[in-house]
Specification:
It is a single chain. The chain is of the alpha/beta class and 403 residues long. The chain has 15 helices and twelve strands. The strands form two sheets. Strands 9-6-3-2-1-12-11-10 form an eight-stranded parallel sheet. It has a four-stranded antiparallel sheet with strand order 5-4-7-8. The longest helix has 21 residues. It is globular and about 60 Å long. The two termini are 15 Å apart. 46% of the residues are buried.
């Protein structure tokens, strides 16, 4: 991840069909035509009833709802082979998921492996997303109750998203017990991710330094406390068994110097959100190159939606920077996209909604809300040759095209 490049953020559920069918292959073709190196996705686990992939039923299993052919035949030998190759978690998932659970994982492995190979042949690599926490009552909590605390749940303190904080309710890790086991559960989790992706974004990276602990039963996250996380020890354990892993730290929110220090010690790319930089800083593009810059993430408004309510000063900064950099686009969403591409960040990632210039109704998620999220779908034919040509030209101007 040391070559200047760019990519698009699109979860498979946002494909026109919401599945790994011909639409997924067409998207890869479009990425290649647009000169993109990376396809970034959200977690692939079975989502909760609201559709959130960040509260998946398993940290290891993938969602059968993504299958293009959910009724494809699976031989008993294939299931046995899959279980033998995944001894740490396959049996746990079979018990939790019930009849057909492992057959679905065999189907997913077939379809995903074929899609990933197709992408690799066209120079497109995949970025996965690993949530720091597992969902309440998940297969992981059932299989390994000893790895989780009693009486406390996860959240974040009051911030710009919510005056009472965000009460996520996820079980918190017993880091002392995980350390005693040599962080085996986390090593196996990273091993699984490396089967699926070329690089990994770590959600809520700051929680590995210190995490917000809320007594179970509270209705808000206001009365939580900060507790110490595992720090570098976990990542050293992973690297000691799996070697170097290409990682992106989602280091947004209430960040302290120790969080930045851990990120830099590990050589992990940090995260920059252009919407935040434009609103808060007089020189929004003054950040180190060891960053992944986003116009916005899945938790932000779209570029067009943000622009509609952004402070005038932020808009003026964006237009002034565009003029300074020779960006000729006038549409606000294109200005933000081309500023991200022109930025010093090693990698620039653009949500597909921002390529299309879609408004707030197309955003993927609104933090601190529990309904109306994770529903965005692309319209068939929306990603045109003209859009691919624009991104390729802008990427070439910014020195981000593959060579």
């Amino acid at each position: 991840m040391t070559k200047r490049a760019s990519g698009i953020l699109l979860h498979p559920t946002s494909l026109p069909s919401g599945r790994l069918d011909e639409e997924a292959y067409a998207f890869v073709d479009w990425l290649a035509a647009a000169g993109q190196t990376w396809w970034q996705l959200l977690p692939l686990g079975p989502p909760d009833r609201d559709g959130s992939p960040y509260r998946a039923a398993s940290a290891f299993a993938c969602s059968p709802a993504l299958l293009a052919d959910p009724d494809a035949a699976v031989a008993p030998a294939e299931i046995e082979s899959f279980a033998a190759r995944h001894p740490y978690w396959a049996a746990d998932w079979a018990r939790f998921g019930g009849e057909g659970a492992l057959a679905d994982q065999v189907r997913f492995e077939r379809e995903w492996s074929a899609l990933r190979a197709y992408a690799a042949e066209r120079g497109v690599r995949l970025i996965g997303d690993i949530p720091i926490y597992v969902a309440p009552d998940s297969a992981d909590e059932h299989a390994h109750p000893e790895l989780f605390q009693d009486g406390f749940v996860a959240g974040v303190p009051p911030d710009e998203w919510s005056a009472t904080g965000q009460l996520w309710g996820n079980p918190l890790y017993d880091w002392a017990e995980l350390r005693r086991t040599g962080y085996r559960w986390w090593i196996e989790r990273f091993r699984r991710m490396l089967e699926l992706f070329d690089a990994i974004r770590i959600d809520h990276f700051r929680g590995f330094v210190a995490y917000w602990s809320v007594p179970k039963g509270h209705k808000t996250a206001m009365r939580g406390t900060w507790r110490r996380g595992p720090g570098r020890a976990l990542f050293d354990a992973v690297a000691g068994e799996l070697g170097k892993v290409d990682l992106i730290a989602e280091d947004l929110g209430v960040i302290t110097p120790p969080v930045h220090a851990l990120r830099d010690e590990l050589g992990i790319l940090g995260t920059v959100v252009l919407q935040f930089e434009l609103a808060a800083r007089s020189d929004p593009l003054d950040f180190p190159k060891r960053r992944v810059v986003y116009t916005g993430t899945h938790d932000n408004d779209t570029a067009a939606g943000w622009w509609a309510s952004a402070p005038q000063q932020a808009k003026a900064r964006a237009r002034a920077l565009a003029q300074e950099l020779g960006i000729e686009s006038r549409e606000p969403h294109r200005i933000l996209v081309e500023l991200a591409l022109a930025s010093p960040g090693e990698i620039a990632i653009v949500p597909v909604q921002d390529v299309l210039g879609l408004g707030s109704k197309a955003r993927m998620n609104t933090p601190a809300t529990s309904s109306g999220n994770w529903r965005f779908r692309l319209e068939r034919g929306a990603l045109t040759d003209e859009l691919a040509a624009w991104l390729r030209d802008a990427g070439a101007a910014a020195g981000r095209l593959r060579v």
